């Protein structure tokens, strides 16, 4: 038993990861990293979550849910900034925890991230499909639900071919190379910001102030709607919006001058996205009473259509489609780097850790694409929306606590990073505690998914990972 525990907590040397990732090409600067981060954070979330969270949990106070989520994510972003600057390796929290805590903790953090990315990809693909159906309906094109909606006996849905189409298209773009993907991402991000501002400009003229009253609806006993419990439940669900800066960290091995670019990309993404989130949420709930957005995956376009702004609504739908494409692009890019890291270290089949002729993790991308197609085409959108935050929060907890182990080694076998988390040693603990509190506010579905996912992950580690681990084969 002691020998087994020794294997589980064995730490990888930083120079080993540096050598393993040396074949990945460093092409990402601050502009590209901000494009990736904002492309994900203001992708599906800004066009879908404000309405859903307002209707299900917080009412007009959905803006407060976004702010509280940003505060919790902001502390974690500072920890991510220091980790990414000190340990610029593919796989983000998975690789970092392998270095500072040991293999089993790295696997748990990485397994949490895999859930985060996998469900996020499926979530955004479902949102994209919903917006695409709404756009087609606006020009009087209707396709049968059996081919355009995930499996649901009540709606007649069987398979969502639009979600499949999106994932296949992103797969093709990523196979063209990282520089092509990031250039496209930057163009789409600019378009998204312009259209978000256009929505705000048009929506401000349609606001009815009575829709803000009461700003914090009374709590309904036995539910997660209204009052402080509703705001907090909304905060937990909204955390899926902040997966973007983790996706930046996952590409650390492909960043130029990571000591500078990683902290700027991570923190810049958080500040820019939060500002846009709060403004859009306030305008959206001001245009119509929050309850009308229940189960509506395209609330912003819906609100514009129902106030007579059909041209702006269709423009927003088109750019929302492009924006969600950019979000999927960034998440599949990050998820493929995580799977590559698993294969690189022998935690999953080594084939996943092999690079193709373009020095890209092609086998990892292939595996991710197949899995994402299966999940996104058959699992309902609202179910996915309730599940995605668990992995994000668990990764935040690990990274925040990891700062303590990192600091003891900086200047020894780990270089002193140019950026450090301020107010050490208090702030890492506060960051971890906030993430734990928000995790406690997740829906029962989210918690059960997290439990089931980790049971499966630990079984895979016990049956395969610990036996094939490159690190443990050295012993």
What's a concise summary of this model?
With 475 residues, the chain is an all-alpha fold. The protein is built from 21 helices and no strands. The longest helix is centred in the first third of the chain and has 36 residues, at 103-138.
Can you describe this structure?
The protein has a single domain, classed as Amino acid/polyamine transporter I (Up-down Bundle), CATH 1.20.1740.10. α15 packs across α16. The chain is globular, with a radius of gyration of 21 Å. With about 475 residues, the protein is mainly α. About 70% of the residues lie in helices and about 0% in strands. The relative contact order is 0.21.
Topology:
Elements: H1 2-8, H2 14-20, H3 30-41, H4 44-58, H5 62-86, H6 93-100, H7 103-138, H8 145-148, H9 161-174, H10 178-204, H11 227-238, H12 244-250, H13 258-287, H14 299-305, H15 310-344, H16 362-378, H17 381-385, H18 389-409, H19 426-440, H20 444-468, H21 470-473
